[in-house]
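Example record

Each entry pairs one chain with its bound ligand, FHN.
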Amino acid sequence: MHNNRLYCLMITFLILLLSVSGFQCQKQDNMAWWREARFGLFIHWGLYAIPAGEWDGVTSYAEWIRTNAQIPVDEYDKFVDQFNPVNYDAEAWVRMAKDAGMKYITITSKHHDGFCLFDSEYTDYDVMSTPFKRDILKELADACHKAGIKICWYHSIMDWHHPDYLPRRSWETNRSSEDADLERYIAHMKNQLEELVTNYGDIGVLWFDGEWEETWTPELGWDLYHYLKKMDPDLIINNRVGKGRSGMAGLTKEGEYAGDFGTPEQEIPATGLPNLDWETCMTMNDHWGWNKIDKNWKSTEDLLRKLADIASKGGNFLLNVGPKPDGTFPQESIDRLAAIGDWMDVNGESIYGTKASPFKYLEWGRCTQKSVWSGTRLYLHVFNWPMDGKLVIPGIYNKADNAHLLGDPETALDVTRQEDALIISMPDAALDPINTVVVLDVKGKPDIGNRPDIHAEQNLFMDELTVEIKSDREDIQIRYTTDGMPVTAKSPVYTAPITLTSSVKVKARCFRDEKPVSGTAESFFEKVAPLKSIQARKVNPGIRYKYYHGNWDALPNFNKLKSEKSGVTKSITVSIREQVDYYGIVFEGFIRVPTTGMYRFYTESDDGSCLLIDGRHIVENDGIHGMEEQGGLIPLEAGFHNIRVEFFERNGGDDLIVSLKGPDMPKQTLTKDMLFH
Ligand code: FHN
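Structure tokens for the complex follow.
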């Protein structure tokens, strides 16, 4: 009897283990094609292609033309009768993408203007109401499936056309919002998303956008994410489905936010982001939608090196084309796609399915890597060909197996070691002046002389601070000093976290067989005294504000401006504004902190903001940007302290969230019981 029960328990445990691991595999599996692909085509197309960026003599517009040129909806809708892309050829589009080495296409099913490029049962504001009367997305999806590349949809949450979407544009005073029902709009959007996910075959990604307005919330984002995942568990969804995007930098903020990958826009993260899924989207010129006068095209060299840079940091590259109203790609886009394809034909292996570089920096180019049966294959993207014919790979401790040019695998290159560097003897001339890829196979996992990481929760502390020192390298000892002296083979070996009780510069270095095998890392940790609290005599709930009108591209000196109005508000909120664009607010008063300790303040704002405590600048978050968050640390004595928050909004989305994290206080928005005047 006893054995039977044990047997049953073991079987149950095994079934449970397999089901959990199966779920984890499924989550990992559905991203597998996307991580392999690394390179896709973005397409912004719609009614806005017809004006081609021009309105009332201004020629700088594109897909935002209806809002930026303040075109009344009835006027804009006249484009519906003009949309007739007679030269649209989905197969030709797909062929150009595939020939460029792209593995997926993400096209605007609906941009902010609300016009749908597909035949939707839920609206007449779609391509079937135009003279064209063909389902553009159906033709493109069929061509993608036939060509073996993934079709993906860009879908805007923000909708400037649907009567139930809120908020209205600030200038659209003639479009009543009285009967608008946002819940009804969300139901409509979900119905259209079901059409897009179920009527067009296998869909790779749903790429949301337009999530920044205050009516869209993290909760709505999670609800939409789960709604879609239930419809298709393999669907990949970006982090703009919710509110997790940290502005144009695009990566997901600290905390739990919906979305499977980060979305930097028009920028590439400064450093590698290994083990993080993210995709940089970028235009070839300065506009997403077609603009007939924009000739500021990025060179093929620039685009190819961006592709290598992004892959070397572990990301995907979504490169945009804005087709013309007749359905053709701009010739400049065609030419660049073809040239990129020529390079990818020879070097695609150094992009597809690769992982981030193990090096922090290489002065001559970039590196991507793949695991191979013998160890690691390093793809060395050489932008600057060594004049002396010697390519120096610094700080690598692996044994080299072999090396060759990816474009000339038959010719072995000589590899020698010079201290901590490998030296590859190169041919006189580069195979490709933009980026010649050298393959270097090494034994084992990358063993690179990266400095150890010295880590603590923060660099300021009041009583004591725990410092950890880490390295992911095998078979090394970390040695360190806390007196600012150089780290030598006689310095203490790091075996456990260090507790600091005074200001200290920590230095650390990796050693192997008593020899240094990395540079020296150093970090300074400062012990600070808390700012004394203010003896506020008589305080009242709420914080004072002053409200201003103006058109700025950075925080102005509000002290020199005349305010439009002033008063007291319970919390720090933009809702006291009288218009959604071209305004500024200064909040000033006291904040009461419950205990003495280290406090981290944050502002998340669109556009710029800053925060001062007792006259000290703690948070700098200035400039024109989407919702971006910045933080700053300060030691405070329990009690009242002066707080001042400055904020400005130029145009587009606007919001300001001020939050705080402190001793035994999780990160939270400032509450009204903290604010006084
Ligand atoms: O407002 C859109 C813009 O039109 C374009 O679609 C880009 C591309 O991702 N996204 C938004 C701006 O962040």
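Residues 63-64, 209, 265, 281, 288 surround FHN (CB under 6 Å).
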